[in-house]
């Protein structure tokens, strides 16, 4: 048999083998690129999700609404909780005393004192107009000063938080007196909040 056909057959088989190797190499390269692309996209989407989650601030829908200005009505939904904030000085015996309320409309829950400068500044500015006109407004002085009249209601260093729950749809008033425990009731300061209980929005 002549040698020429044998050489041609060998060249053809070598060429076919090289072609198969190139195809395999190309297919592996495309798979690797696709895999790395999917990994990068997954990483990017994870980073975006993390940033978005960090920026979101959660708000407690059950947190009570706070009110400091007695000149404005207090709107609250039925069965909702709300708080009235007033400056007070419990270290010298001064606190806000709740007068009888219509418990068919609102129910008193609790009373506490907070040491919060931001709350104090917001309550002091809105309740100064509720002071009795027979008493001058006096700037609060630390209790270490010996010239303070213990029966004189000074501008308070703390905030009294009085909590309520709305029981029925109606409008009612909440009256409070600023009194000193064990002291005289000389011209006590008083304030009144008008509470408007609304139906729960549908």
Give a short overview:
Residues 121-147 have a biased composition (Low complexity). InterPro entries: Chagasin-like_sf. The chain is of the alpha/beta class and 202 residues long.
Helix content: 25-40%
Radius of gyration using CA atoms only: 38 Å
Oligomeric state of this protein = single chain
Average pLDDT works out at 73
Measured by DSSP, the beta-strand proportion falls in: 25-35%
Order of helices and strands: HEEEEEHEEE
Number of domains as seen in the coordinates:
2
The end-to-end distance, rounded to whole angstroms, is 98 Å
CATH architecture of the largest domain: Sandwich
Shape: elongated
Describe this structure in words.
With 202 residues, the chain is α/β, with parallel strands linked by helices. The protein folds into two domains: 57 residues; 134 residues, Sandwich (Immunoglobulin-like). Helix content is 32%, strand content 29%. It has two helices and eight strands. It has a four-stranded mixed β-sheet with strand order 1-3-6-5. A four-stranded mixed β-sheet has the order 2-8-7-4, with no helix packed on it. Strand 7 and strand 8 form a beta hairpin. The longest helix is centred in the first third of the chain and has 53 residues. About 13% of the residues have low confidence.
């Amino acid at each position: 048999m002549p040698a020429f056909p044998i050489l041609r057959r060998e060249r053809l088989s070598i060429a076919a083998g090289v072609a198969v190797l190139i195809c395999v190499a190309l297919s592996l390269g495309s798979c690797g690129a696709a895999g790395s692309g999917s990994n990068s996209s997954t990483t990017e989407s994870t980073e975006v999700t993390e940033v978005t989650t960090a920026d979101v601030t959660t708000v407690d829908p059950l947190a009570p609404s706070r009110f400091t200005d007695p000149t404005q009505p207090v709107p609250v939904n039925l069965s909702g909780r709300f708080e009235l904030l007033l400056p007070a000085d419990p270290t010298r015996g001064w606190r806000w005393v709740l007068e009888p309320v219509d418990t068919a409309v609102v129910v008193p829950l609790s009373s506490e004192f907070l040491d919060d400068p931001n709350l104090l500044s917001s309550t002091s500015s809105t309740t100064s107009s509720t002071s009795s006109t027979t008493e001058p407004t006096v700037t609060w002085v630390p209790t270490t000063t010996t010239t303070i009249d213990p029966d004189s209601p000074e501008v308070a260093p703390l905030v009294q938080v009085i909590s309520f729950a709305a029981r029925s749809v109606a409008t009612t008033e909440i009256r409070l007196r600023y009194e000193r425990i064990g002291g005289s009731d000389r011209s006590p300061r008083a304030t009144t909040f008008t509470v408007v209980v609304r139906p729960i929005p549908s």
